[in-house]
Design goal:
single chain, alpha/beta, TIM Barrel, Arc Repressor Mutant, subunit A, 2 domains, nine-stranded mixed sheet, three-stranded antiparallel sheet
Length: 375
């Protein structure tokens, strides 16, 4: 089984913290871009031949800006080029301002069965400095409309560790999740990326970032409250009720294959990684002239080992020792490091899998780095 990711590089506005690939000035080439994405899908139809597609994910950018005709064109190309299972998870990332009873009806009609709503914050002042296009009331309304329209698989994104976000404010955000009865949440700590407006404001002293201590407290409080309200932390930043995990993202974390279409999209076949150029004009030109628009890297055994450690440790599924040992036999240094963190109570070995304990999740990146192969 494999997955498909489609990157839609369109956004209404540039959020102050975002460093993803997108454009806010796309009206002049919008149709051309959609045509090139569909061309890429059809020209790569022989990749993963014999494998079924069980997840399709529209990310970006802002996929909810697509018209019904554009969405149908891309989906038609996928379904005509690949074998898609009848029960495939089809996720659309949507911003609250794009969600209405009419848009929801259209999305359900074309087969979208999972919505990922980019709320980020339920607090007005956060949304303003983030330069988001929606307000706090739209955040709540979007979820309620989606539920009323019959969507039973909804996830939202939230960000903690924001400037001037108190612990009480963060608890209020989480309470809103519980009050709205949202089954899945992805919560990420704010990172200040180079080249963003936020980074510039921080350098100039216009915004003061939250300290590591308050970020850590908010993370711990989230885990506590989520557990009390029936949510399982199945990945460091992802929580679900009733096992409503993201099938698509879980495939990434467990090292399964996926195809990525659109500018900046990545693909992985178990051996090699491929990524499309992060430039809209060059991406379209490459497809039109049938010249190169991507790069490919064959992963070494060391790369695969480190990726299995890095992604697997973040999840409830853990890292299978058999998968690691198929790449390298266990050496003394690895076993000593494993035993060190085990004695510290930070990880356990269960059913031949390395699993982090609740305490270990706080140190996930450090533990992973010490288990990496470096030479």
């Amino acid at each position: 089984m494999a997955g498909i990711y489609v990157h839609i590089p369109f956004c209404r506005k540039k959020c102050s913290y975002c460093d993803f690939h997108f454009s806010t000035t796309f009206s002049g080439y919008r149709g051309r871009m959609i045509n090139m994405i569909t061309k890429e899908i059809t020209t790569r139809r022989n990749e993963f031949s014999g494998e079924s597609i069980e997840t399709i994910y529209f990310g970006g950018g802002t996929p909810s800006l697509l018209t019904i005709q554009e969405l149908e064109l891309i989906l038609q190309a996928i379904y005509s080029s690949y074998e898609v299972t009848n029960d495939a998870e089809l996720t659309l990332e949507a911003n609250p301002e794009d969600i209405s009873p009419d848009s929801l009806k259209v999305w359900r009609k074309v087969g979208v069965n999972r919505l990922s709503i980019g709320i980020q914050s339920f607090r007005e002042q956060d949304l303003e400095w983030m330069n988001r296009s929606h307000n706090a009331e739209q955040s709540k309304q979007a979820v309620e409309w989606a539920q009323k329209a019959g969507f039973t698989n909804i996830t939202i994104d939230l960000i903690y560790g924001l400037p001037n976000l108190s612990i009480a404010d963060w608890e209020n955000h989480l309470q809103m999740v519980f009050d709205l009865s949202i089954d899945h949440i992805s919560a990420y700590c704010l990172t200040i990326e180079e080249g963003t407006a936020l980074n510039n404001w921080v350098k100039k002293g216009k915004i003061h970032p939250a300290g590591e201590e308050i970020q850590s407290i908010q993370f711990d409080r989230m885990i506590e409250l989520m557990g009390q309200n029936g949510y399982e932390q199945y990945e460091i930043s992802n929580f679900a009720r009733d096992q409503k995990y993201s099938k698509h993202n879980s495939a990434y974390w467990t090292g399964r294959s996926y195809l990525g279409f659109g500018p900046s999209a990545h693909s992985f076949d178990g051996i090699s990684r491929r990524w499309n150029i992060s430039n809209n004009a060059q991406y379209m030109q490459g497809l039109e002239t049938e010249t190169n628009y991507c790069e490919t890297e064959k992963l070494s055994h060391q790369d695969r080992w480190n990726e299995l450690i890095m992604t697997g440790l973040r999840t409830k599924f853990g890292v299978y020792l058999q998968s690691l040992y198929s790449l390298f036999p266990p050496d003394e240094e690895f076993l000593e490091t494993l035993n060190f963190w085990k004695e510290k109570g930070m990880l356990t070995i269960q059913n031949e899998r390395i699993l982090l304990t609740p305490q270990g999740k706080i140190l996930a990146d450090r533990i992973a780095s010490e288990l990496f192969k470096t030479n």
